[in-house]
Amino acid sequence: MNDVAIRDAATLILMRRQNDGPARILMGQRGAKAAFMPNKFVFPGGALDDGDLDIPLAHPINDICGQRLSEAPNPERAAALPAAAIRELWEETGLMLGQPGQWDRAAPDDWRDFSAQNLCPSAAGLTYVFRAITPPGRPRRFDARFFLADASDVAGDLDDFSAASDELSHLQWIALSEARQLDLPFITEVVLAEVAAMADHTAPPASVPFFNNTDEESLFERIYGAGAKPPE
Fold this sequence. Notes:
With 232 residues, the protein is of the alpha+beta class. The chain is built from five helices and twelve strands. It has a single domain (6-223), classed as Nucleoside Triphosphate Pyrophosphohydrolase, CATH 3.90.79.10. Strand 7 (127-133) and strand 8 (141-150) form a beta hairpin.
């Protein structure tokens, strides 16, 4: 019996589109002693914190993605996942998705450094693209939602990782076509295939893939939402 609690989590895939080269994504390597996915290259991300539940966003995520996020056991916590993704990006890479502005309340501890830059986090450019629950038997389990964002929405220098924590090393912009050559978790490979398929699109996908490992059986489902229905 697996009694590891499943925690809500958010991952942010930052894509850097360039006129004179291939689209690139930001990835980093987890430490060799990490309890979860040691040595693997991953996107910035992590568990939802209670402090993310009431963060004032300059702009919320778009309506379609918001509706799909709400199709969860706890819609209130799911609604805070865009903020969690922005915070994890900031903590692990030093890059900030936000717009100039003053906060209307005191920032929680995890957000103080962000608010000190006189920026308000903005989820306007985030697209909800994937959901995956960690299979049973792992030391940690997450119900992770993956968000895609354009690097042009970052405030500041895209190559300045000086404010990053030490959770990820070897932070780098890597071409989508080359990313699979890295040592990746299985689910990251699956997500990469989805992202590559929509690299030239900015609109939300027709549905969100859901790798459902709630029970012993793994199911690959899709989330439609927003009034859309699966094809008959």
